[in-house]
Design brief:
Blueprint lengths: L10 H20 L6 H10 L4 E2 L6 E2 L5 H6 L3 H27 L3 H13 L1 H6 L7 H14 L6 H9 L1 H21 L6 H23 L4 H9 L3 H5 L11 H13 L8 H14 L4 H23 L5 H28 L4 H12 L4 E3 L5 H6 L3 E2 L11 H13 L3 H10 L4 E4 L1 H4 L4 H8 L4 E3 L2
Length: about 450
């Protein structure tokens, strides 16, 4: 691989074309209706309210409404085209940021190529999810901060970030403060504005925790049961995350630039902070991916510029790493084409929409689908500020593990369950299917 290719006049157009192609693959193969976020935001876009009568059987709607408000302009169309549009715009904004930071053209183009090949970028902008608008806004905010004019737009954007994703907002403010201290070396009105904005964020979170039910112990215990490395690295089974080969290049970039760490304090501090936060919240990985890409671009350049004693060995190593980068991209695309709901499950959701109102018992990962179908659920993935989370979670697990019909029926009666949703994937993992099948065959909606 000749790195001089990235200095050619057509390199940026070629990379832009690759970006468009990658972001179009999933929408063309799957369409927009998969995962859970699209169903959640679509429902809120069509019926915004401060009270959600369907989630957890009824709860205060303490949600981040920004994405739904944007989609509400024309839900059916925006859901299909907005991720692609913002993906392209994010690519262009990131390019402008790189041009503001680096004079070397090949670093800019290599970083852009690594961006479009990263599993996180493909995930964010291939379909409607809770991160894609926030990521675009963060890039816009950082772009304005790196320009001589319109810096106030950076603060304005982050001021509205809580309605889109409050955790990304908090992390972004922290990164902006670090940037102003380490790169700009200034504590002017912009610096103190970010400090004030950060304090407002924290006060807002304290207000919500103080006034609404939240079980932090349950949330933390539930998180500790997860595999931390799996949460960070996409290749270990997460929905999105850092590519292992991308991380290897980044480590090479870190090691080879360690002597210059004092001139790159922003990148080193940002990386350290985001790695720590990524162990607890997935939003940190979204931002960490950008920082890792910057180091990975440096790592690839160092790798290619080294004078190897054995040129064949050099070509083999570089080919292996580049193949790994492409493999992660292809793997992410393949995983997104197979993500739930399948066509059969989607048909079941629309069928459920047509039956009488009621409460549906199902796994928390299916709860948002039940809400989209106009039915109440017992539990879903929006645990934060939801009522009786731990009790409901424990009851659900009791039903899953029990083969005692009376115990199961007692819990179902407790929540006034009218329907039971069991699809093929669930049927392979839970005991309730076999117990209820003997007693209440007509009581459930069963997807084959």
């Amino acid at each position: 691989m000749n790195l001089q290719l990235f200095t050619k006049w057509y390199a940026k157009y070629l990379i832009f074309g690759i970006c468009c192609l990658i972001l179009l693959i999933i929408p063309l193969i799957r369409g927009p209706w998969f995962g859970t976020d699209v169903f959640f935001f679509s429902r809120l876009a069509e019926n915004p309210s401060f009270y959600d009568s369907l989630s957890f059987g009824g709860r205060d709607a303490i949600y981040e409404y920004g994405t739904s408000l944007v989609l509400s302009i024309y839900p059916s169309v925006m859901i299909e085209i907005l991720p692609f549009i913002l993906g392209i715009l994010s690519f262009l904004v990131f390019r402008q940021i790189l041009k503001n930071l680096y004079e070397e053209e090949r670093i800019v183009n290599i970083s852009l190529l690594l961006l479009v090949l990263s599993p996180t970028f493909i995930y964010l902008f291939s379909f409607t999810n809770k991160y894609f608008i926030s990521m675009f806004l963060v890039l816009c905010s950082f772009y304005f901060l790196t320009t001589k004019q319109y810096k106030w737009f950076s603060i304005i954007i982050l001021a509205v970030m809580p309605i889109f994703n409050i955790f990304i907002g908090i992390l972004s403010i922290i990164l902006m403060i670090i940037y102003l201290i380490t790169i700009k070396k200034e504590k002017n009105i912009f610096f103190w504005s970010f400090i004030l904005l950060f304090l407002i964020y924290i006060l807002g979170i304290i207000y919500l925790i103080w006034n609404y039910e939240i079980n932090l112990e349950f949330l933390m215990n539930n998180k500790r049961n997860l595999e931390l490395l799996k949460d960070i690295f996409y290749d270990l089974g997460n929905n999105f995350g850092l590519g292992i080969f991308l991380s290897i290049l980044a480590m090479i970039g870190v090691v080879t630039n360690w002597e210059k760490k004092y001139s790159n304090l922003f990148l080193f501090w940002a990386t350290s902070i985001l790695i720590i936060f990524s162990l607890f919240i997935p939003e940190a990985i979204v931002l960490l991916n950008i920082i890792v890409i910057l180091f990975a671009a440096r790592g690839l350049i160092v790798l290619m510029d080294l004078k190897w004693s054995d040129r064949q060995y050099k070509k083999y190593i570089v080919f292996l790493i580049l193949s790994g980068l492409v493999f992660s991209s292809v793997s992410q695309i393949n995983n997104l084409t197979e993500i739930q709901p399948t066509q059969e499950v989607l048909e079941g959701i629309y069928f459920l929409k047509a039956v009488s109102p009621g409460t549906v018992f199902t796994d928390s990962s299916r709860g948002i689908w039940m809400n989209y179908a106009g039915k109440e659920n017992i539990i879903d993935e929006n645990y934060l500020f939801a009522p009786d989370v731990e009790e409901r979670y424990n009851d659900i697990n009791k039903v899953y593990l029990s083969r005692n019909f009376d115990e199961i029926k007692g819990i179902l009666d407790k929540y006034s369950v009218d329907y039971i949703w069991i699809d093929q994937e669930m049927k392979e993992n839970i005991a309730i299917y076999y117990t209820i099948q003997k007693h209440l065959t007509g009581f459930m909606i069963k997807m084959e």
